[in-house]
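Team,

Forwarding the record for the chain on the shared tracking sheet. I've put the sequence and predicted structure together so nobody has to dig through attachments.
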Amino acid sequence: MLFPKHLLDLILGFIERDLMKNTDDVVDPGQQVNRHGIAHGIFAGFETRDIALKYLILLDSLAFVVFHDRLVAGTL
């Protein structure tokens, strides 16, 4: 593994804890969205700078994990 395990735990923990939870658990739709609310059309007008930054960081983090996984596996 080329990066700290706690980084992987943070990334995957966010996905499991925040992104994949039920919409009923969202306290502040201005700061939180999740897959359930987006997929079922519950959230409208949720596009904020804070949310965009969170998900940009998430996508970048996932790309980082996949890149290193492929690098170690020799499939890059």
